[in-house]
Specification:
By secondary structure, the chain is α+β, with helices and mostly antiparallel strands. It is built from two helices and six strands, in the order βββααβββ. It has a two-stranded antiparallel sheet with strand order 1-6. Strands 2-3 form a two-stranded antiparallel sheet.
């Protein structure tokens, strides 16, 4: 799966009912502005270097792992659906079989 980090000038379009910024179409910079208004002064840390924390990842069973958590807006494109059966190949010209 490919993922793309979006830049401030990239434009996102989505269903208005799920949009956090109240618009169907918006720039990433508008989303970040909305986020910073909601979170307040600590937003720069959340979107920049990240906030110190510990994470307990249940699948590894390795205990608490120190690190940082940060918020970013990323785009994950839909993967094209692959047909189960490949398209048949057709050859042009004549096929001769020698005995």
């Amino acid at each position: 799966m490919s993922e793309f980090n979006l830049s401030d000038d990239d434009v996102v379009s989505m269903n208005l009912h799920v949009s956090l910024v109240g618009n169907q179409t918006f720039k990433v910079s508008q989303f970040m502005h909305w986020f910073k208004q909601k979170v307040g002064g600590s937003a720069e840390v959340w979107t920049g270097e990240g906030v110190d924390c510990e994470v307990l990842i249940s699948s590894t069973g390795g205990g608490w792992q120190p690190g940082k958590v940060r918020i970013r807006l990323e785009f994950v494109p839909d993967e094209p659906e692959l047909d189960d059966e490949p398209e048949p190949l057709y050859l042009e010209g004549q096929l001769s079989i020698e005995e």
